[in-house]
Design brief:
5 helices, 3-stranded antiparallel β-sheet, alpha+beta
Length: 144
């Protein structure tokens, strides 16, 4: 059985980004304050950028027994399990523990001089990175 798993930013959060971006654009149009217009325009661009990323780069991470695929705005990148080191990293931020999923290429297996590293958090995955790391470990074990 070929199990396929995928993770993406939460759809309600992406919808909220688009709604706030539209609101910021509206506020920019009707505002009489030049400085306020600049700030709301910047906010609209940032919110629309995150909304576009969350909309078009779905799913952000997917995996099966063959390997991992990470999707971005410019396309996707595929790795086999052997080409990638997957690690759960827990750091302390603002008085609480924050989990992040680290994906690091093994340069000798992918043909690059410098390894690429990608760090994914809750916003990228839509769930706790601990759960994703556990699922990835299970998929890797099934592939072996």
């Amino acid at each position: 059985m070929d199990e396929h798993r995928a993770w993406a930013p939460p759809a309600p959060l992406i919808g909220i980004c688009w709604a706030l971006a539209a609101t910021a654009v509206g506020w920019t149009i009707i505002s009489d304050d030049p400085a306020g217009r600049v700030l709301t325009a910047i906010a609209a661009l940032a919110l629309a950028g995150y909304g576009a990323f969350g909309t078009f780069a779905r799913p952000r991470l997917s995996a099966d027994r063959h390997g991992i695929r990470v999707r971005g705005l410019a396309g996707s990148t595929d790795w086999t399990w052997e080409q990638l080191k997957v690690e759960l990293v827990i750091t302390r931020r603002l008085g609480r523990n924050v989990a992040m999923l680290e994906l690091e290429e093994r340069p000798e297996l992918v043909g690059h001089d410098q390894p690429r590293m990608l760090v994914l958090g809750w916003l990228d995955l839509g769930t706790d990175p601990r759960d994703v790391a556990e699922a990835l470990d299970e998929l890797r074990a099934d592939a072996a």
